[in-house]
Amino acid sequence: MKLNLKSTTNVINLNNFDAEDIGDVLLKIERSFDINFADTDLKGVKTFGALCDLVVNKIKQHHADSCTTQQAFYKLRNAINAKNPVDRSELKPQTKLCELFPRDNRIEVVADIEAEMGFHMNLLQPKQWIIWAFGSLLLASIVLTYFFAIAGYISGGIAIVGLILAGKFGKELKVKTLGDLSEKIAREHHLKCRRDASTVNRTEVNQKVKELFADYLHVEPSVLTKQAKFA
Predict the structure, then answer these.
(1) Read out DSSP for 72-140?
(2) Using one digit for the tens of pLDDT, what is the confidence trace for 152-184?
(3) Which residue from 51, 71, 81, 184 has the highest number of Cβ atoms inside 10 Å of its Cβ?
């Protein structure tokens, strides 16, 4: 399930993205909208606009005009209240997550809310310097293996274990506010955020697909035009 992005005249150059990264985004789209791409589906996709059309056509839920991000906010607010009752007037889109999720027990609090909501929010991460440190060690271990195999394998193992533990016990927030988190889960778990899972707002789908690509590939949504080419 791979697509390569290709640039043409007057279209942003997207052909530098790795096919594996594109495949990862496609998996996120499948999970968010509860659809599956067959290899035959993707063979006919030549533009980003065509991919969005394919996603819309694969969605079987009935159309409803309600805003999914708003419903995600209400679902998140209810989950927070279920675990730690808070005056609803204090839970606003601009409410800072660092105030809702104290650092001391942040991992446990987030896990409880995820259990209440029924999906993983992918909200926490380790400090960036920790990722860089173990990532650099892993790269160094690969080089070291060519000269001192045992030392390379040991350092590589340490780096991998370190990255796994860092990911498991990281406490840094990926987004800052309750509104940001609502937008995040609305694009990553679109149908699960809907009040009625048998409905979907089809007018939102193209934008959510664009946001998934932009977020994962770290590009501005504006560059993901309908004319952007897949090759």
Answers:
(1) HHHHHHHHHHHHS---GGG--TT-BHHHHS-GGGHHHHHHHHHHHHTS----EE--HHHHHHHHHHHHH
(2) 999 999 999 999 999 989 999 999 999 999 999
(3) 51
Half-sphere exposure of 102 (CA within 13 A, CB side): 3
Q: Where are the domains of the chain?
A: 5-64+200-230, 68-125+171-188, 128-169
User: Is the pTM here over 0.85, yes or no?
Assistant: no
By the 8 A CB rule, do 210 and 56 touch?
Answer: no
**Parallel/antiparallel/unpaired status of strands 5-6 and 229-230:** antiparallel
Partnered with residue 96 across adjacent β-strands are: 177
3-state secondary structure of 173: strand
| Residues 6 or more apart whose Cβ sits within 8 Å of residue 128 | 172
Fold of 68-125+171-188: 1.10.1200
As given in the structure block, the two tokens for residue 19 are 């096919």
List, for residues 73-120, the tens digit of each pLDDT value.
999 999 999 988 888 788 999 999 999 999 999 999 999 999 999 999
Which residue in this structure is represented by tokens 């533990």?
165
Instruction: Determine contact, residues 26/3, Cβ cutoff 8 Å.
Output: yes
Q: Determine contact, residues 84/47, Cβ cutoff 8 Å.
A: no
